[in-house]
Structures
1.
Amino acid sequence: MAMTDDAIAHMDAKVSDEVAIEIENMNKWYGTFHVLRDINLTVYSGERIVICGPSGSGKSTLIRCINALEEHQQGRITVDGTTLSSDIKNIDRIRSEVGMVFQHFNLFPHLTILENCTLAPIWVRKTPKKEAEETAMHFLTKVKIPEQADKYPGQLSGGQQQRVAIARSLCMKPRIMLFDEPTSALDPEMIKEVLDTMIELAEDGMTMLVVTHEMGFARQVANRVIFMDEGQIVEQNEPEEFFHNPKSDRTKLFLSQILGH
Amino acid sequence: MSDKPAHNVAFVRETTLPPSPPPVAETGAIKWMRENLFSSAFNSIMTILGVLAVYQILSLALPWLLNGVWNASSIRDCREILDGATGGCFAVLTERWHQLVFGRYPQDSYWRPTLAFLLMFAAFAPVLFSNLPKKMLIFTGLYPFIAYYLVWGGSVLVPILSLVGFAVGYVVYTRLVDRSFATGFFGGVAAAIAVWYIGGFIINEDSTFLALEQVESRDIGGFMLNLILGVVCLSVSLPLGIVLALGRQSRMPIIKWICVVFIEFIRGVPLITLLFVANVVLAYFLPPGTNFDLILRVMIMITMFAAAYIAEVIRGGLAALPRGQYEAGDSLGLDYSQSMRLIILPQALKISIPGIVNVAVGLFKDTTLVSVISMFDLVGMVRGPILASTDWNGVYWELFGFAALLFFVFCYGISQYSQWLERQLQTDHR
């Protein structure tokens, strides 16, 4: 699948020199198990990074450290100029700037779709209810399910739920979006609708970190692919180079396994 | 080509099968009976035995109920009227209903607890039914003070002072809570205590300003006492239980251990022991001369007991929530109290409803245990003044049957409400 020249041009235009996330010498342990080893990563505003790797390689843990869902023990993470510390106010501020989409959607089942989307803007941003609802409808229209606003998450299909989850994050007007295997829990028929939504988001210039095995998506929208194994960044490159000319043996093996059938 | 897979493996469906109605079988009562009552030899025997048992019970109970005596002045009168025939002596209920319901409450003031009871429905309505206007909650907030004033009487200044104390405490809390929760909480408590302390000097306890006749706690009894204990203890123990359950999950070791020790200790001790402690043992520790109301002491004990159980029920609900719900709340930037209030507790409490109702019904029935520490609740009244009197010594079935019926009506009501609530809260449309 070759990328059109048009897509490449439009991709590079949006990447700036402004640093969105800076991770320096970050280490993390679960008990005595060393999950993340000496991670260094700089993400620029508008970049779309796909992180892949075998299971247990620490890719989810890495992006969960960025919004402090997991605590790192060593090193420094700076998000949008704010350095993560154990100060709760600091963490809450970063979280409200960083949207997150989970593998299992994690919508709030006791609230309607609209309430799911307006909850955080109303309580965290103190947006008036009416304005929050207008914003929510705007983003629900963007993910193409405005007609489901008054339903409960339990009444929606997996793909629709994941699109609501994306809209819910967008309602906080985040500057960075993290996606933790957003399509892994979906039926094949529904993966496309979620990926389309993410592609659209990428075209709007959102800074995105995506943990996924969807290599088609990586080829189409990423401007950097990171391969992780055993808690380390093994290789990172532009998608074209990464897929056609992988350097490390581990990457070659991984690519042959997921692309080989 | 037919739509049946034939010998060859390749098969393509060409026509979609239309849905067809189920096979016509015999319907109606006979079919139902054959399926449910006489489906096998064993079931047929059980059905016949069951019918015989019901007949046996009804043939004993019905004459006793229908032939009952409602007008007599003593059990001897009853026996004379019945003249050897089977029949209940329900006259004890008509004769002593005021003792059964109100205990030794002054007869000319029965309207006061009755009014408090009726107002209770208005006070609980906005809490129990969320579709009512939120403004009604103001009355709910005022109700405890109104009810206290109505039932115990005395000067209106006492409940007003108590209300002012709570109000001042709340205002101080809201002012300080932005700084930190602990400052707000302890500041509020301190302010409230200060108001009560200073107010205690200003108001003379014997003030007759808008006073209703004062009723002593020992005169409050009958089913009214069970209701007061049940309602007060349950309303206080529910929030306390939530706090204990959250405290037990806390990452702060001191808070966690206080909650764990409290819950495990209270759960490990029989309620009756706690009631004896309230009745007898506490008196040794209080300074001589202090008059710490017995009903209040009992309330504190029952509340602690129920709170410990409710805390464990809610902990079960909290544990049942997927971790993702906490993470979703966190990732949106909600702080601890927001994500608890808006996301975690509504779901955890919904899961816990059957367990909480279980505790509530059990607690309500357990209020009859106070009869053991010589308080005259419904059971205490029956066992004490009524059965001990020469007039009614021996009418066990009628009295305890009445007590059972009263409790059943209330407990069944609670259980029906909880089932309705669960249906209301169902959003997963399974």
Note: The beta strands of chain A are 19-30, 33-44, 48-52, 74-79, 82-83, 98-101, 176-180, 207-211, 224-229, 232-237.
2.
Amino acid sequence: MNTRKHLLGLEGMSAEEITRLLDTAESFKEVSERPVKKVPALRGMTIANLFFEPSTRTRISFELAEKRLSADSVNFTVGGSSVSKGETLRDTAENIQAMKVDMIVIRHSAAGAPHFLAGLLEASVVNAGDGAHEHPTQGLLDMFTLRERWGNFDERKVVIVGDVAHSRVARSNIHGLVAMGVEVVVCGPPTLIPMNIERLGVGVESDLRKALDGADAVNVLRIQKERQAAGLFPSIDEYARVWGVSADALKHAKPDCVVMHPGPMNRGIEIAQDVADGERSVILDQVTNGVAVRMAVLYLCSGGAAIESEEEQTTTEAKTTKGKQVA
Amino acid sequence: MSEIVYKSTLLDRDAIRRAVKRIAHEIVERNGGVDGLVVVGIRRRGVPLAERIAQYIEQIEGRAIPVGALDITLYRDDFQVVTKQPHVGKTEIKEDITDKIVILVDDVLYTGRTIRAALDELIDFGRPKRIQLAVLIDRGHREFPIKADYVGKNVPTSETELVEVHLDEIDETDEVLLAEKQP
């Protein structure tokens, strides 16, 4: 049986576990639509949100997920904290754990920071983005949004376009989608596509229109303007013209091709205004689903709990091992 | 893993049908009709029972009544106790239950802890005028002050015994079995 205490990345996660996570998230989505948007599942648990990098969407999404599960949460941001006085990650984390925190949600600019804490602390660790490594809850919410549209992942093609080299969103999406058997093609300026990325099981195509041929979904990555200053692409205008996802470029994709963006968007650069607000855009659905997916992740990681299927739960064995029948 | 030995059949297909039908009649009688009635089943096997009760009530009174489903996993009091985490199902209550008479339906009434959780969850959806409880089997051993309003069959059991309800919609057969855990 799968047991999961931490969620550090989607790399190596089985299709079965991803499916169970997405199924659980589906049940949690309904909670956010109730008049009382709160269930007592994590009552008495304390969760610390350690955001060493600025974030609006992800931090608020995690916070809402925690509150809707009745957990108590505390927020930590770098500005005005002991980190600005030179405290190390290890000391910060150990101090927070000494105050008896059950779970830690961490975003850090260094890849592997969540793994470091997971090996060090008693608490469960959930990765909310580490450097250019992974952003597993974003990967899961993207997949949740796609599955909601499609029903399953059979015979689908997803194009990830933009700064793949610096994108943790891209990496989590690649690991998750490839595990589910989806055809993934990455697209962008060759300077922003990592060498040997094919080894992750994806195709590479630098021409956006060719990449979009027959695509069922396109995930548009945020382009960071400082990459241009670093000389990785010639100009913002050129980027928008060649790799910006426009209505014209989308003509090459399937008519019902879904458009995603992890936010925050640079409208008119990596994504055209009319595409971002268009019929095929599921960008706000992604945000809605993010809360449900994070609720499921926090719930399943809490208390060293196991992910179990409905069938297993209702067998007599399961009931008897609990020592009592659920009346 | 301990072995399960089946001892007897408590209810067969016909007996289940008669019991559920009688409960439907009792619900209509006690509430003087079907005005404001909502039937809510507790996952998993309370849901098909709730649907059957609603069907019988419709046959009796000629009016359809709303049916909902409640998954109490997130309201359990043993979340930190059990090491295996149960599957989280969906709660579906589309009807506004404020000022309604909610008939809560489950298959087996035992400790009462599930019902406690269900009551907590229900009142997060509104303020019903009244909540009544209907169960197919009441097997005793209550740990909470909870009593059913409608009972298919009362079965005195020992704590080592198990009551297994099988319903067509989930198990492809209609029967209630009494089993015993062998040490």
Note: Residues 96 and 126 of chain B are 7 Å apart (CA to CA).
